[in-house]
Every structure is written in structure tokens, then in C-alpha cells.
Amino acid sequence: MKFSYSIIRLVILALILVLPGCTFTKLLTTRLEKPTFTYKGFELVDASQSSLIVNFLFSAHNPNKAGLKSITCSYELFVEGNKILTGNDVPLALNPNGDTEIKVPATIAYSDLFPVLGSVVQRILSGQKTIPITINAVFSGKPATYSEAGKEEAISFEMKLIKTADIPLP
Questions:
Q1: b/e sequence 118-144, b meaning 16+ C-beta within 10 Å
Q2: What domain range is 26 assigned to?
Q3: How many Å is the maximal CA-CA distance in the chain?
Q4: Contact status, residue 140 vs residue 69, Cβ threshold 8 Å
Q5: What is the mean pLDDT of the chain?
């Protein structure tokens, strides 16, 4: 009887050690597909007398069985063709087999609007409550997996999105 319990324990231990390894090996040997990104809009987080905090909202679709890291978003914000803000390498992680909601934060200081002050003042004086801000976002990454031969296979991608949003003025 003691002998059979030892064998059962040994079999259970072997299964515990082997099964996760099979899943890990399968993930490492699966060819990665590039994710896709979609602009969804923006949300106003805070408005003060000196700045606005805005989250630009994106959705990412990851068709892979594994989550992806080593993904970044860089962006530039423009008002009437004039760059007012740059954000570099905002780190992202994408969920496996599905969609991930992404919030890219931007703090827009009113002082950054000086290059376009004339048109901003004109909008305010004409009663307009918003200012069109163009976001030029670049999503990029170099996630990697390993082939059966043990070679690293990186997928490198870069996707650009350009969208204009009407951001409220205080």
C-alpha cells in the first residue's frame, strides 16, 4: 500500500512539472502576429487655470496566445500644424488573445499654446468651447519568441495613427 502511494505521488509530481513546461514550450515556439491599434477618443481628466490633463484612448488587439510586453507609444500633439507637446516611449503591455484598452496621458500646459495663441484667443472670443488638437501616435515594439531550433524570432512593428480631437477649453 505504501508503495502505491509513493508511485501516485511521483506521477502527480511529474505531471505538475511537465504540463506547464509543455505550455511554455508551445508559447515559445508559436509564431507571433502583429497587434493592431485603434483610436477611440479622449477623456478629460482635469482642467485647471494653468493646464489640461487628457487621456487619449486607444484599443489594441493582440491575436497571440501570449501577452506582449516591450511595446511603447510615442506621440506628438499639434494645434493648427504647430507641435505643442511630445511624449516618448510610454510603456504598454497587451493582454493575450484579445483587446486591451490603452490610456495615453498628456498634460497640456496653456503656456505651450503660445505659438498658436492668436487662434486660441480668436476661438475663445468667438464663443467656441473647444480647440482641435491632433495626436500623431506611433505604437512600436520588438517582442520576441523562440523557435524550435532555439533561435529568437522577433516581430518588429510600427503603426502610426493620426487623429484630431476637440478638447474643451476652460
A1: eebeebeeeeeeebebbbebbbbbebe
A2: 1-30
A3: 91
A4: no
A5: 81
- All residues at 6 or more sequence positions from 29 whose CB lies less than 8 Å from its CB, including other chains: 145, 146, 147, 148
Which amino acid, 4?
A: S
Residue with cell string 505538475: 16
Closest listed residue to residue 62, CA positions, set 88, 90, 93, 91: 93
Q: Higher model confidence: residue 163 or residue 30?
A: 163
146 and 92 housed in the same domain? yes
What is the spatial distance between Cα 96 and Cα 30, in angstroms, rounded to a whole number? 13
Q: Do 8 and 39 reside in the same domain of the chain?
A: no
**Is the pTM above the cut of 0.85?**
no
The predicted pLDDT at position 27 comes to: 47
30 to 107, 139, 143, 144: CA distances (angstroms): 40, 23, 13, 10
61 and 25 part of one domain: no
In the chain, the percentage of residues whose pLDDT exceeds 90 is 31
**53 shares its domain with 106:** yes
